[in-house]
Design goal:
single chain, about 120 residues, mainly alpha, about 80% helix
């Protein structure tokens, strides 16, 4: 695949991450999002959700602005790790809403990996 193809899939993945994570950038919107997906939360869990939401949103913007092969590769590895942690959470009895995020991470990880490995 061409460099442009990697950039397109990288930007598409970045846009997905931005949309999926933007609600977790503040404690108030994060609490609302956790209520929607049925996840119990405390001040501490809202704080961590806000920290991670902020990092993912920032990372999304970086990948949107500079969809370079190295950054897309790092993101693809990160998606594989997220899939491991989502699977672990599901096995621990976490809300089934996590399965939706797992499927989406699998899709974006596979799409980016395909773009990175095809010539």
């Amino acid at each position: 695949m061409t460099r442009d193809h990697v950039a397109r899939w990288g930007r598409a993945g970045a846009l997905y991450d931005l949309v999926a994570s933007i609600a977790f950038v503040t404690p108030w919107t994060g609490a609302f999002a956790m209520d929607l997906i049925g996840t119990p939360h405390t001040t501490a869990t809202r704080m961590f959700a806000t920290l991670f939401g902020t990092v993912v949103v920032m990372w999304s913007v970086v990948r949107w602005l500079k969809p370079e092969r190295l950054l897309i590769t790092a993101d693809t590895v990160g998606r594989a790790l997220f899939c491991c942690w989502f699977t672990w959470a599901l096995l621990q009895g976490e809300t089934k809403a996590i399965a939706v995020f797992l499927v989406l991470e699998l899709f974006w990880g596979a799409a980016q990996l395909r773009a990175l490995t095809r010539r």
